[in-house]
Amino acid sequence: MTQTTRRRVLVWLMAAAAAAAAAVAGSGWPRAVAPSAPSQTTTSPESSRSLPSSSTSSTPSSPSPSSSSSLQFEDDRGRIVRLPASPTRIVSLAPHATELLFASGAGHKVVAVDRDSDYPPAVRSLPRVAAYPQPDIEQLLALAPDLVVIWGPGAPRALVARLEQLGLAVFVSEPRTLDDVGATLARFARLSDDSATALGAAQAFRARLAQIRARYAQRPAVRVFVQIWTSPLIGIGEHEVIADAVRSCGARSVLSDAAIAAPRVDPEAVIAARPAMVLATDGERGERFWRERGLLAPSGPARFAAFDASTMERPGPRVLDALEQMCAAIDAARAPS
After folding, report:
1. 120 closest CA partner among 130, 129, 110, 132
2. Which of 131, 177, 217, 276 could cross-link to 93 by cystine, CB 3.0-4.6 Å?
3. Domains (ranges, CATH) in the chain?
4. Tell me: the pLDDT tens digits for 65-76?
């Protein structure tokens, strides 16, 4: 992973941490209310709560009579997003949302994306829109979208309200767990011309996630330090998608008591915690850092593995591939040396 990518991961985590802290303080950054979905279902809970409507509102209300082509569904702030018909012009202002839209069968409706969206390859030819820290509103209006999907930490309430006042329907996307990714896939299936196939993709995601978790659920827990920056030293606590991935592998972060997603830590505190595994995004640099301090085997208790957070920092359908690789690395720490 390049330093630019690691910096983007850090910015994403710090913004997410700020959003979580504000939610606790009641300052208008509510937690996503979509519940963690069962790993194997035959009917999507999101499809059952996507009710017909023909207006837009930030708070739930009783549906009004409308045509059967209208859509109503809930975003990750608990807002009810209402569309008079299935959208045909979607703008995605987050890389993870872009991937989820394409995976759910709505990719052909995406007419523009943020500057960091680069997957699937089809998005590379699409127009680019400034997204963070502030979207270019004039550029958005010129695109005439009937739906804008925006990243939660980059979407303060005032901005969302402004976009809605200008007539834009806004879906705030902020998956914080792996289950949230599957839930978003199911909700975005409503935007597809073939919702049954799209819902199948969501169910396949949930089934694969359940299989991975079941594989490691009964194995001995591994204490892990997940490092996303060396200087200053920054790790992962118990919040957000990367932390959920660690738990899904049957491991536990040594920073599980941290109040924020990406705390700055003292190297001596990490050594005192005696992790069995160090997972770092900066490869050789991170390994050298800990070997010089005696944490790594054979002189210390920990194994080392590099991992690429560039996929996991954008919680989309490919996150399970990254999860498989992380779990395999963690599992190696359980094996006899």
Report:
1. 110
2. 131
3. 42-174 (3.40.50.1980), 217-332 (3.40.50.1980)
4. 334 578 998 999
